[in-house]
Amino acid sequence: MRNLVSCDILVVGAGPAGGATALAAAQRDARVLVVDRRQVVGMPVRCAEYIPAMLMGRLDLGKSFIVQRIRRMKTYLPGEPVREMRAPGFTIHRDLFDQALICAAIDAGAGLMTSTRAVQRRDDETVLLKRRDGQSIKVRPKIIVGADGPHSTVGRWVGAVNHHLLAGVQVTMPLTAPMDWTEVYFDPEIYAGYGWLFPKKDLANIGIGLKTTPRNPVRTRAVLERFIARLRAAGKVTGQIVGSAAGWIPAEPVRQAVYGNVLLVGDAAGHTHPITGAGIANAVVCGAMAGKWAARAVAMDDPGVLHHYDDQWLDLFQDTLDHAHRRRQTMESFWQDFTGTVRSCWIAFREYYA
Ligand SMILES: Cc1cc2nc3c(=O)[nH]c(=O)nc-3n(C[C@H](O)[C@H](O)[C@H](O)COP(=O)(O)OP(=O)(O)OC[C@H]3O[C@@H](n4cnc5c(N)ncnc54)[C@H](O)[C@@H]3O)c2cc1C
């Protein structure tokens, strides 16, 4: 027996994009239902857990998820002096961050179903949900928001699929000494990507993000192991690995995010920065826009206003994301000429902005 649930806005995914969308829409009195296939929002964590200070200024979620302050970023290129730049921000407990955002949305009136996967959009404008216990639920929303990450199911329904994905693999292990900066390492073997060391008090997230195919994960692991060995030899990290994570990072060209009554947000929309791989802030900022326009469309009973969401996020992010995507194409095409290419493909160098 299928239950039929009605709501104004169905948000698929309770990550930063979905949480921010739900919060903004519920604050404007829309009836919002968020579903996530995970049992616990934010778990397991697949993230290096850095957010820019700018994002904290936009949110009113308290500080429970903050681990430490970050002031600078150091970039390492082989055979060159270390490049330093300001990078004010924080490392966070990403699971607590996602939970704080979704709790704020619930406080504002949104509903949440975990262990619930959106599986199908049907011709009668309903969406079929499957719960982990096998139960099926039909939802009849006025607006559907795909905030369901890099391999978005909702994106597939409207023919907007991420094709350009980078592999991210990471471990967490003890730091030898506290740091209030992040470190980024370029190396010819980290193909069209970089390695990172992000401190979390006495621990560090150490990972690599690189261009690869799902068919050669072994090589990715081997590159990560050599990167860890390098950091151990440099005396930066020590001891045993206490955690590991892997995920996919979209590196897409800019495209529309509104398809009739369907909006895409965050990784599902390719809002992630194609060079840095940072996506939390863009997901939250675009989510706030999507939630606002979705609620307005409901209040006015006019899906036509949804196109303002595209106008607004493109106005803010298009130039930056377009530029980054062009740099990514350069990076992937000319990686063999590592020394000649890399400075124009990383945000710490003037050549990047030229
Ligand atoms: C290794 C790694 C390190 C990273 N480090 C950083 C970093 O330090 N800083 C930064 O800014 N960005 C980082 N990113 C990118 C960042 O994690 C993403 O950009 C961000 O999570 C995007 O948020 P989102 O809400 O769009 O998607 P997600 O966080 O992926 O959330 C999508 C949610 O949708 C749910 N879902 C998926 N399909 C369905 C379905 N069919 N039905 C129901 N639910 C579904 C998932 O369970 C998930 O909870 C990193 C990424 C990786 C892989």
N-to-C CA distance: 61 Å
Would you give the CATH topology? FAD/NAD(P)-binding domain
Mean pLDDT: 96
Name of the top-level CATH class = Alpha Beta
Low-confidence stretches: none
CATH homologous superfamily caption: FAD/NAD(P)-binding domain
Number of strands: 16
Explain the overall architecture:
A hairpin with a 4-residue loop joins strand 8 and strand 9. The protein has nine helices and 16 strands. The chain is of the alpha/beta class and 354 residues long. It is globular and about 60 Å long. Helix 1 (16-27) runs parallel beside helix 3 (94-107), helix 1 packs parallel to helix 6 (280-300) and helix 6 (280-300) packs antiparallel against helix 7. The chain has a single domain, classed as FAD/NAD(P)-binding domain, CATH 3.50.50. The chain is 31% helix and 30% strand. The chain binds flavin-adenine dinucleotide.
Map the helices and strands:
Elements lengths: L2 E10 L3 H12 L4 E4 L14 E3 H6 L7 E11 L6 E10 L1 H14 L3 E3 L2 E6 L5 E5 L4 E11 L6 H5 L7 E10 L6 E5 L8 E7 L2 E9 L5 H17 L9 E8 L7 E2 L2 E3 L15 H21 L6 H27 L4 H4 L8 H4 L1
Parallel strand pairs: 1-2, 1-9, 2-6, 4-11, 9-16
Antiparallel strand pairs: 3-5, 4-5, 7-8, 8-9, 10-13, 10-14, 11-12, 12-13, 15-16
Helix pairs in contact: 1-3, 1-6, 6-7
The structure holds flavin-adenine dinucleotide (FAD).
